[in-house]
Amino acid sequence: MRLAILACYFGTLPWYFRYFLYSCGYNPTVDFFIITDDAAYRGRHPANVHFVYRTLQEIRLLASERLGLAARIDNGYKLCDFKPAFGIIFRDILAPYDFWGHADIDIIYGNIRNFISDELMLAYDLISVRADWLTGCFLLFRNCDALNRLFMQSKDYQRVFTDPRHFCFDETNFRHDAFTEGKNWRETPSEIESMMHVVQRLGDEGYLRAYFDQHIIEGRPGRLTWSRGTLSYKNEFEALLYHLIELKQVYRPTRLPRRMPETFFISPTRIYS
Question: Which of 14, 93, 112, 221 lies 20 to 30 Å from 251 when distance is taken between CA atoms?
Fold first, then answer.
């Protein structure tokens, strides 16, 4: 089954983007689309990574047109709320694929297909790579009208899309801890009905086949090894991806390798080979 991953980034592409690109190249059966305004980026990139140059203003106008409302996208961070609507906003790009996913670029991928098999995609409509809540950094949808419009099942989606505030709509409306504690959507009131609330509710009602399992590593655990496309923890457990959301706050390399190594290591404070 054909799979596309789409990520948006506005501004100068950061240092860790090279690691992102490098790891994408080791997943040749997945196509990656980068929506960015950084037309100055001249780094090499794998054949399965495709750049689509658009300004934030152009994306705002496109979202408004495709969604039939006055989209408020005043900064790149606000686009996280629109991730569940990417199947509508970027339908021209995603049309040839059986599944599509929204993702971030502060990621180093392992072997995606070792976790996201054709059998898994046939069995489920939506795939999260955490066991407790929807992963905004990597979440997959079946490419069909019902799933592309799943966000419309939230009674609050129009409010979210027309308000400049960031609501963490793609995940839990900042109620991550409650879901991690095992509470369900009925036990987790929130300001707006997030995608996690929608997915759990529709799953309980039998309208949606959603997959949740722990396939990613976050935080700064260290003892990570990336070698020729395989990411492992303590040389024992394979992972689909490492999310640099915390590491990038403490590690800012002064220079990057001229040639990316076939093997490198990730400690709690740096990446080295």
Answer: 112
Query: What's the confidence (pLDDT) of residue 39?
Result: 87
Name every residue whose Cβ is closer than 8 Å to that of residue 19 and which is 6 or more positions away in sequence.
Answer: 108, 260, 271
Helices and strands counted in the chain (H then E): 11, 15
Per-residue confidence at 41, pLDDT binned at 50, 70, 90? Answer: confident
The rounded distance, in Å, linking the Cα atoms of 226 and 247 is: 16
pLDDT score of 27 more than 90? yes
- Answer for the pair 89, 82: CB distance below 8 angstroms, yes or no: yes
Which residue from 58, 118, 113 is spatially nearest to 90, judged by alpha carbons? 58
What is the pTM assigned to this prediction?
A: 0.96
**Residue pair 10/36 in contact by the 8 Å Cβ criterion:** yes
C-alpha span between 226 and 265 (Å, rounded) = 6
Cβ(194)–Cβ(169) under 8 Å? Answer: yes
Length of the chain: 273
Give the mean model confidence (pLDDT) for residues 87-112.
Answer: 98
Q: Are 142 and 3 in contact (CB under 8 A)?
A: no
Rounded distance between C-alpha atoms, residue 200 and residue 170, angstroms: 13
Report the run of H or E that residue 6 belongs to, with start and end: strand 3-9
Edge-first strand order for the sheet with 237-239 is 237-239, 230-233, 224-227, 263-266, 271-272
What end-to-end distance do the CA atoms of the chain give, in Å? 35
**b vs e for 48-69, b when ≥16 Cβ sit within 10 Å of the residue's Cβ?**
bbeeeebebeebbebbbebbee
Q: Which of 1, 157, 3 is nearest to 84 (CA)?
A: 157
Q: Answer positive or negative: Cα dihedral of 225, 227, 232, 235.
A: negative
Burial (CB < 10 A; 0-12, 13-18, 19+), residue 265, is: middle
Q: What is the pLDDT of residue 40?
A: 83
